[in-house]
Amino acid sequence: MSPSTPPAPDRLLIRLPNPLGDALMATPLLRAIHRAWPNTKLLLVGRPAHHELFVGLPGVNGYRGVPSAFAVSEEARLLRKSGASTILLLPNSMSSALAAKLARIPHRIGRKRHGRGLLLSRRLPRQKKPMAMTTFYLDWLKALGIESADHSENLAVAKPSSPSTPIPQGAKLLAVAPGAAYGPSKLLPIGTLAATLRELRDQHDFVPILLGSPHESELLESLAKQVGTPCLLPPPSLRQLGESSAILARSTLFLGSDAGARHLASAHGVPQVVWYGPTDLTWSAHDLERMEIVRQDGLDCLGCQRAICPYVDHPCMSQIEAKQLVEAVLRAAKKNPKANALG
Prior knowledge:
The chain contains 13 helices and eleven strands. It has two domains: 11-144, Glycogen Phosphorylase B (Rossmann fold); 172-342, Glycogen Phosphorylase B (Rossmann fold, 3-Layer(aba) Sandwich), CATH 3.40.50.2000. It has helices at 20-24, 27-36, 51-54, 72-80, 94-102, 133-144, 190-204, 217-227, 241-250, 260-267, 315-318, 322-333, 337-342; strands at 11-15, 41-46, 60-65, 86-89, 107-111, 122-124, 172-177, 206-210, 253-257, 272-275, 291-294. It is globular. The chain is an alpha/beta fold.
């Protein structure tokens, strides 16, 4: 262990990334730390809505929510109350590093990005090329003096309760997440998705259930109307992450973009069909053996990382056809014994 490496602490503060998918892709890191330091209490800090997905994971002793409206000074006060001497700063933001510095936490470990190097006590090198975020976060193990973990380790999520949304007994449930907090560049044309779901329901006996946040209610309700019945949609009061997690745990397959719900499906061991366009597959390259990828290869604009497409026709999404999605779902179904048994 190097002189600058802190010893195994009684408690370890971990500032999770704000995006749901990124936070879930940090769970292999949490599991590796717990295996190496089983007596260390892991105190997580992240978005309040993610609370029930993490509390209950092995080693997690507490979760403190940081609303998006929090000022840096408010986050610093919250961190200071933890009493921890070491914090892992998984986000690359200036604000997370500044909050840890203001909280007077001695050991602040994070990547050197956005000019925040002076706020850190241990600086990890900047990642210049795309890589799987699961591997990206395992870099923190070296800073802790822990041997590197298996890079193929799956994501994890706390065990959910039973869903409150009524689900038909024995249904071949297809969980569908049409939205994306990243931005509209990830959204398929609603007509394409509706045609896909109608065919999968009418010709292949899937029961679609639509998942999304309260902010996506307009999109969810419009899609449900175009698909027609039967198409399950949790009522507005149940459009929360805990309910989505419970539904995904019961689902046969998942269909959606490379957003948070896809990573939540992966954490539940559910095969995924994922459409890609503006984002680089490399960043979310995990659980590939259970994932079918749908994208329009050959477009110069793929992986542009833009939240809003600059092209009127949005080619990476508009050129994806319902037939491609249907075929991908049927291929994914072959990877799931439950789907085969129900079919």
